[in-house]
TrEMBL record:
The protein's required cofactors: Zn(2+)
Name of the protein in its database record: Glutamyl-Q tRNA(Asp) synthetase
Species this protein is from: Stutzerimonas stutzeri KOS6
Binding site for ATP: K237
EC number(s) given by UniProt: 6.1.1.-
InterPro entries reported in the protein's UniProt record: Glu-Q_tRNA(Asp)_Synthase, Glu/Gln-tRNA-synth, Glu/Gln-tRNA-synth_Ib_cat-dom, GluQ/Sye, Rossmann-like_a/b/a_fold
Length: 301
């Protein structure tokens, strides 16, 4: 729920940005908890942003359920929740600028045409000069390597030309792509630290490139281990991951803390969610987060 008293401005600004394609699950809790504690432990601000850019995939009632779940688990955020669906004008203006500068182009390639290229765009439309009508828009990437130092995963490098290729910033159906929206929104909200799952680790170099193009500051990054189910699938809204239940708030918060390498004392067993969060904020140590990309769910019980 929004905190009743706005904290004094702090240098650290973090955020949690769920997608309303389903309910929050244990993996979501890991991300929310780590980003919350990383901010609160240094007196920073923690923002809530709903990444609702894909209406066809949005589950009816999911936005309300996400907010209710966060409140039930004791989370408080600063200011009002922002919805990406209210930011289309900013995304459109950014795309127009990239098109005007020759940094983006129309792409009419179908999925069938791109089969066999292993996710690396082969550049079929790069210099074709297609009309923007009924076309996706791709960003030209440089023949260059981008690198950053992740606070948990260490140094990560990716050559955009050889490993990513020109990527979509607006889909053929007009929907804005994640890579563009997240960069513009983090900068607009003044986010200094991004805490999220390791499945987005290889997206970061593309975001660094976009930050460079728009002259934006680069936040610090911390990519968390993903929670893997016994059958090898990661916890996610699209794969039978059970939603968080209100009556499980305290035990699941403690379990999430242990997954993050923290050591909550036995006295917190049975404590209220806000009491657990207060202890965790005072004792948060990001250096204890496991330096791996995945954690087996069975090991956390």
């Amino acid at each position: 729920m929004p905190s009743s008293v706005s904290p004094k401005p702090a240098r650290y600004i973090g955020r949690f940005a769920p997608t309303p394609s389903g309910y929050l699950h244990f993996g979501s809790l890991i991300a929310a908890l780590a980003s919350y504690l990383d901010a609160r432990s240094v007196g920073g601000r923690w923002l809530l942003r709903m990444e609702d850019l894909d209406p066809p995939r949005e589950m009816p009632g999911a936005q309300r359920a996400i907010v209710d779940t966060l409140q039930g688990y004791g989370f408080e955020w600063d200011g009002e929740m922002v919805r990406q669906s209210e930011r289309h004008a900013a995304y459109s203006a950014a795309i127009e600028r990239l098109l005007d500068e020759g940094l983006a182009y129309a792409c009419t390639c179908s999925r069938k045409q791109l089969e066999g290229h292993h996710g690396l765009y082969p550049g079929f439309c790069r210099d074709a000069g297609h009309s923007l009508r009924e076309a996706a828009i791709r960003l030209r990437v440089p023949d260059r390597e981008y690198a950053f130092s992740d606070r948990v995963q260490g140094e990560f490098r990716q050559h955009l030309g050889r490993e990513a290729g020109d990527f979509v910033i607006r889909r053929r159906d007009g929907l804005i792509a994640y890579q563009l929206a997240v960069v513009l929104d983090d900068a607009w909200q003044g986010v200094t630290d991004v805490v999220r799952g390791a499945d987005l680790l290889d997206s970061t170099p593309r975001q660094l490139y976009l930050q460079e193009l728009f002259g934006l500051s680069q936040p610090r990054y911390l990519h968390l281990p993903l929670i893997i189910q016994p059958d090898g699938h990661k916890l996610g809204k699209s794969y039978r991951s059970p939603p968080l239940q209100p009556h499980e708030a305290s035990p699941l918060l403690l379990r999430a803390l242990r997954a993050l390498g923290q050591q909550p004392p036995a006295e917190l067993d049975g404590a209220l969610p806000r009491e657990i969060l207060a202890w965790a904020s005072a004792h948060w140590d990001a250096g204890k987060i496991p330096h791996v990309h995945t954690l087996a769910e069975a090991q956390l019980r």
